[in-house]
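Archive entry: two folds, one per protein. Generate the first.
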Amino acid sequence: MLPATRNTLCLLAHRIGQLTEQIQELERRLVLLAERHAPQLLTVMRIGPGTAVTLLITMGATRNVCTVRRPSPRCAGSAA
C-alpha cells in the first residue's frame, strides 16, 4: 500500500504544480489586459487585476445594452 500512496501523492503534487503555473499565467494575462485597457483601475486601492478586468467586461456589456434610444434607469445608473 505504501508505494501506491507515494505514487498518488507524487501525482497530486505534480498536478498542484501545473495548476499553480496555470494560475500564475492567467494572472499575468489579467494584469496585461487591465494595464492595456484601464491602467487607472489598478491604481485604486484594493482593486486587483481580476476585479479590474471584471469591471471592464461589465462596462462593455452595459455599453451594448445602453445603446437604445431611451436608456433604462439601470443604464443611467439610477437603479440597482
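Generate the second and append.
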Amino acid sequence: MEVKIGVQHAPREIVLESGQSAEELEAIVADALSGKTSLLSLTDIRGRKVLVPADRLSYVDLGEPTARKVGFGAA
C-alpha cells in the first residue's frame, strides 16, 4: 500500500510502499495523532524505517493496495 506523508515546513512529501494493511496503518497514525506516541514510525517493504514527529504531520494519505502486475499487457 502506498503511503504519502506531508510534513509541515518540508517542501516534499514522504512516499513509501508499506506491506501493512490500511487498518494497521490507520491505527498507527491515530496513535501518533492522539499523543500516545510522539513519533509516527513506519517501515516500508524494503525495511527502511521512516520516523516523523507527530506534531509536524500535515497529512497522511493511505492509497489503495497495490498488486504487482506482471507481463507486457499489464495495465
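Annotation attached to the second fold: The beta strands are 2-7, 14-17, 39-43, 49-53, 57-62. The two ends are 18 Å apart (CA to CA).
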